[in-house]
Specification:
The complex is a heterodimer of chains A (274) and B (198). By secondary structure, chain A is of the alpha/beta class. Chain A folds into 2 domains: 3-73, no CATH class; 83-273, Vaccinia Virus protein VP39 (Rossmann fold), CATH 3.40.50.150. Chain A has helices spanning 3-23, 32-45, 51-60, 62-72, 83-97, 114-125, 141-149, 157-166, 188-192, 224-237; strands at 103-108, 132-138, 151-153, 177-179, 183-186, 194-198, 210-215, 238-246, 261-265, 270-273. In chain A, strands 6-2-1-7-8-10-9 form a 7-stranded mixed sheet. Chain A has a 3-stranded antiparallel sheet with strand order 3-5-4. In chain B, helix 1 (19-26) packs across helix 6 (180-192), helix 3 packs parallel to helix 4 (138-146) and helix 4 (138-146) packs parallel to helix 5 (163-171). The longest helix of chain B is centred in the last third of the chain and has 13 residues, at 180-192. Chain B starts with 9 loop residues before the first strand and ends in a 6-residue tail after the last helix. Chain B has helices spanning 19-26, 51-57, 110-121, 138-146, 163-171, 180-192, and strands spanning 10-15, 37-42, 63-65, 77-80, 86-89, 95-98, 125-129, 150-154, 176-178. Chain B is globular, with a radius of gyration of 15 Å. Chain B is α/β, with parallel strands linked by helices. In chain B, the strands form 2 sheets. Chain B has a 7-stranded parallel sheet with strand order 3-4-2-1-7-8-9, sandwiched between helices. Chain A binds chain B through residues 31-34, 36-38, 74, 76, 217, 219-221, 224, 227, 247-251, 253-254, and chain B through 49, 67-71, 82, 85-86, 88-91, 94, 96-101, 112, 115-116, 119-120. The complex binds S-adenosylmethionine. S-adenosylmethionine (SAM) binds at residues 73-77, 81, 109-111, 114-115, 138-140, 143, 200-202, 216-218, 221 of chain A.
Chain lengths: 274, 198
């Protein structure tokens, strides 16, 4: 390692440690390459020359930390993102879940709520929503509030609707929201079935036993060690024969927890707890 | 002082319009026992996810993979970035994916791959920028050069869209400006510097 590299590793470590100590958000084991990119963007936005400057600002100005949090966490989502995944949930997983008297689902890392609403829509169409409960959690409070409101910009719905149909939607997506001019709000019947709350896969543990965990494109932001911790929490939250759905490029292949699961729908990255 | 060149462990390649054709010329030149990994990002409309992998496998003796997150980066293997994800290289020589916002209107972005490669592997990277209609990859190429890596650009007059190679040439000192048929043999030479020991 060159002296410069050593410096920059040290600065990064100290910044993340400071954030952890002061705000209890733990980014110390996030995947470094993309984290560094987002921090470089944050330096520009927050007008700091170095990570050490950023550290000082964040320690002294909680507002600067809120702003930084937008860079540290990536809020990218869509209704029915990756339609084959939702099709597999509908056609392959729900027939199992249907046999339970009540269905509990955990969406871990729910961002602004799109994944949770997509699942609620499927449950509604399959006649299961009234005996279902969806817990949707994230570490980004701003996103959780947006998720709870269930309001999305109107111009996103053309894409959402395409996804919905590709995912095997039975009717029209427009049955599930009310559009105003610039925005649309998801139906109350869906919102009622979802409980949004704060939970970190890096620092918190299991809080309920559920039949399905959907955790998509969250683990990619973690280093291997933190992935192991998070997958452990997800596993412990699943009942026997419960399902775990991951993002389309996420896998249990490299995890020590793999033996606790079987591959259920391998292309769609859906696993079943043994 | 005599300096022996550092081994090249990763050949990172980026391109957009027309680049698939160029790869059809470059990849057949690479031998099965290539001692570097080949990591490719192209801007393509997201077809079927496996499309690029399938097309490229027909042109090379090397295994072609669309990597999962955290997959180890192995020599003698070609990795192509999946549509809708950025592809990055980590210091511990694994591949990482992210759904961060598009960079230069692209996801995957060539800059994201090249900059992460420079950061993770320093002088043991060669960056290759092919034909394309925008300037994604130019910053990344400059970063590779600044970290001691090798820079290669397809000669603009052979490019079906010259904006990308031209931007590369403007942004960084380029070690080799070559037509498609000479890029493959150069990559073989660069990879040989690692002595084929692994
Ligand atoms: C790219 S979004 C994925 C959104 C959604 N799951 C989807 O696939 O459409 C990643 C989300 O993970 C959240 N996240 C990051 N670190 C987390 C952690 N330690 N615990 C829980 N969620 C986290 C981010 O705040 C962000 O909302």
């Amino acid at each position: 390692m060159s002296a410069e590299e050593e410096h920059s590793a040290l600065e990064l470590g100290l910044l993340l440690e400071a954030i952890y100590q002061k705000y209890h958000y733990d980014f110390r084991q996030y995947a470094e390459a993309s984290l560094r990119r987002r921090l470089s963007a944050a330096l520009v936005q927050l007008r700091c020359a170095t990570l050490s400057d950023l550290q000082r600002r964040v320690l002294h100005e909680p507002k600067a930390f809120s702003e930084l949090l937008r860079f540290l966490t990536v809020q990218v989502s869509e209704l029915f993102r990756d339609p084959p995944y939702y099709r597999a949930i509908r056609e392959r997983v729900l027939p199992y879940l249907r046999t339970y008297p009540s269905i509990k689902i955990w969406v871990a890392g729910c961002s602004t709520g799109e994944e949770a609403y997509s699942l609620a829509i499927i449950l509604q169409e399959e006649g299961l929503l009234d005996r279902a409960m969806i817990y949707a959690t994230d570490i980004n409070g701003e996103s959780l509030r947006a998720a709870e409101a269930g309001v999305y910009q109107s111009d996103r719905f053309a894409r959402f609707s395409e996804n919905y149909l590709a995912a095997g939607g039975r009717g029209s997506l427009s049955e599930f929201y009310t559009a105003n001019y610039a925005s649309a709000v998801m139906d109350r019947s869906l919102r009622k079935a979802i409980l949004f709350s704060d939970h970190s896969l890096a620092t918190d543990s299991t809080f309920a036993e559920v039949e399905l965990v959907s955790c998509r494109n969250v683990l990619i932001y973690f280093e291997r060690e933190l992935q192991e911790r998070a997958i452990g929490v997800l596993r412990d939250s699943l009942c026997r024969k419960g399902f775990l759905g991951l993002g389309s490029k996420e896998t249990l292949r490299f995890s020590a927890h793999a033996p606790a699961f079987t591959e259920f729908a391998s292309d769609e990255r859906i696993y079943q707890r043994i | 002082m005599v300096t022996t060149p550092r081994p090249i462990d990763a050949l990172v390649i980026g391109g957009s319009a027309g680049a698939l054709e160029v790869l059809m010329t470059v990849l057949p030149a690479l031998p099965r026992d290539l001692s570097a990994a080949v990591v490719i990002v192209l801007h393509l409309a997201p077809h079927k996810p496996s499309y690029l992998r399938d097309v490229l496998s027909q042109r090379t003796a090397l295994a072609v993979r669309e990597p999962d997150d955290k997959e180890p980066m192995l020599p003698g293997t070609v990795y192509v970035g999946p549509p809708n994800y950025h592809l990055l290289i980590e210091r511990n020589r694994t591949l990482a994916l992210s759904v961060d916002d598009a960079v230069n209107f692209s996801r995957p972005s060539i800059d994201v791959l090249f900059e992460s490669a420079a950061e993770a592997l320093g002088p043991s990277v060669a960056g290759v920028l092919l034909t394309g209609a925008n300037d994604d990859g130019a910053r990344g190429l400059a970063r590779i050069r600044a970290s001691g890596g090798i820079t290669v650009v397809q000669s603009p007059e052979t490019a079906s869209a010259s904006a990308m190679p031209e931007a590369g040439i403007r942004a960084a000192a380029i070690d080799h400006v070559l037509p498609p048929e000479r890029i493959g043999p150069l990559l073989v030479e660069l990879a040989k510097r690692s002595g084929g020991s692994r």
